[in-house]
Input
Amino acid sequence: MTHFAEIGNDGIVISVIVAEQDFIDNYTTGTWVQTSYNTHGGVHSDGGVALRKNFAGIGMVYDSSRDAFYVPKPYTSWTLDDDSCLWEAPIAYPDDDKNWTWDEDVYQGDNTKGWVVIETPAK
Output
């Protein structure tokens, strides 16, 4: 069995199913594109051939020109890596033990900043 994503007219994934190619060919309408559960960031987890950069999920984008699935753009300043089809912040994620989140307003105010510490509640 294989995973297939149903693509809406706007290029957004509207469903993902497990089916045989024969079922897709003979019993469905619309646009269906095969997707691989083992593919993420352009890499196949079992060392096989990566299929369409990322496993499709409802709400993801199918970009036919890249033949790839990726999540919608999370922030205005982020760019899509063509090799992985994963979004990248304009500033690298901090390399420490703290929990960080992106704040687009902070970045737009000072493009040398953008990651802010997630405060954990006191116990």
User: Anything to note?
Assistant: The helical segments are 21-27, 104-109. The first strand starts at residue 2 and ends at 7. Residues 2-74 form one domain. Residues 6 and 32 are 5 Å apart (CA to CA).
